[in-house]
């Protein structure tokens, strides 16, 4: 079992209509399960407004929302796959937008974890095969296993 994953933080075929809805979908699970404090969603929204998290990969737009570790009680990584793409600001961009279909929520309770998780996810999403696997997911169990094998085993080793 992965300490960084929780099946309730895996949402496939989300019908969210705006990135704020995505943050509420994933963020509320983080709050309800005690992984984050009551201000977590506000923290995600503030961070996104100042430092957008959209990345255009070779095949698809992916967002990596995260916020200050002070909002997080227990580190978790979430996955949300959108039915229809949503606009996110481009990470490091100057107002450009990215049509995002996949969202990896990085809820890290320590600053060094955040950087390591971000680096690992950015590396992983450059792999077209992995991105295609995410698109082909049909259930949470399959998604959990994919994330555990491709992402969290390595991350959990690195942040020990």
Summary?
Helices cover 42% and strands 22% of the residues.
Task: Describe the model.
- By secondary structure, this protein is α/β, with parallel strands linked by helices.
- It is 42% helix and 22% strand.
- It has 5 helices and 5 strands; from the N terminus they run βααββββααα.
- It has helices at 19-32, 40-50, 111-125, 128-135, 140-158; strands at residues 10-14, 54-56, 61-63, 76-89, 97-107.
- A 5-stranded mixed beta sheet has the order 1-4-5-3-2.
- A hairpin with a 7-residue loop joins strand 4 and strand 5 (97-107).
- Helix 1 (19-32) packs antiparallel against helix 2.
- The longest helix has 19 residues, at 140-158.
- It is globular and about 35 Å long.
- The mean pLDDT is 91.
Keyword list:
alpha/beta, five-stranded mixed sheet, single chain, 5 strands, 160 residues, globular
Spatial order of the strands forming the largest sheet: 1-4-5-3-2
User: For the terminal residues, how far apart are their CA atoms?
Assistant: 16 Å
Mean pLDDT: 91
Given as residue ranges, the uncertain stretches (5+ residues, pLDDT < 50) are: none
Q: Helix- and strand-based class? A: alpha/beta
Which band does the percent of strand residues land in? 15-25%
Q: Mind describing the biggest β-sheet?
A: 5 strands, mixed
How many distinct beta strands? 5
Assembly status = single chain
Topology pattern, helix = H, strand = E = EHHEEEEHHH
Q: What is the gyration radius calculated from CA atoms? A: 14 Å
How much helical structure, as a percent, in the residues? 40-55%
Principal-axes geometry comes out as: globular
How many helical stretches? Answer: 5
